[in-house]
Specification:
InterPro entries: Peptidase_M14 (IPR000834), Peptidase_M14_domain (IPR050753). It is built from six helices and four strands. By secondary structure, it is an alpha+beta fold. It has one domain: Zn peptidases (Aminopeptidase, 3-Layer(aba) Sandwich). It is globular, with a radius of gyration of 16 Å. The termini are far apart.
Length: about 180
């Protein structure tokens, strides 16, 4: 099965696995950062947590208007190292600020991949631990759960709002993540 297709099927399987209190709510910026940091600490040999931009020789802003970093978690055999001939994928979510689903799916995907790779969780469906290990050993996967964390926080309002239903999600859509 093609690697991109394998990732999509894994992501679908993750959606079906709810029940952990970690996934019973949406993750604001701090909670998102905590998930990414925990996964990186749990799987340090196959992950690297980094901030965009990586190379700032052109004076690109290093944080959003509201001083949030654009975070990416990389999975690879040798994270942080470009290897010629090894395919790279970057999955980006939450570009417009008011999109919750992609953000949550990428957070679950990174947790799932780490847990299955380590043997802490049984893989879903017809996958084996070997499938996940092969995927990580042969691909560099960059997961960016939020490209617009400021817009998400504006759209979400307070914790009560985004947990209990929001009527004005369009509010955060126009927020820009750059200065």
């Amino acid at each position: 099965m093609e690697l991109r297709g394998l990732l999509l099927v894994i992501c679908s399987a993750i959606c079906a696995t709810v029940g952990f209190s970690e996934w019973a709510q949406h993750h604001n910026y701090e909670a998102m950062k905590d998930v990414m940091t925990r996964v990186n600490k749990k799987c340090p040999k196959i992950t690297k947590l980094y901030e965009l931009p990586v190379n700032n020789e052109f004076g690109v802003p290093t944080e959003t208007w509201n001083h949030r970093k654009l975070l990416v978690l990389e999975f690879a055999k040798r994270p942080g190292e470009h290897v010629e001939g090894v395919p790279e994928f970057k999955y980006i979510a939450n570009m417009h600020g008011n999109e919750v689903t992609g953000r949550e799916l990428l957070l679950r995907l990174m947790s799932y991949m780490c847990d299955v790779y380590n043997g802490d969780m049984e893989p879903e469906g017809s996958f084996s631990r070997k499938h996940i290990q092969r995927l990580i050993q042969n691909t560099r996967i960059h997961l960016m759960p939020s490209m617009n964390p400021d817009g998400w926080e504006i759209a979400a309002g307070s914790v009560d709002d985004y947990q209990n239903g929001v009527t004005a999600w369009i509010v955060g859509r126009g927020q820009c993540s750059q200065h």
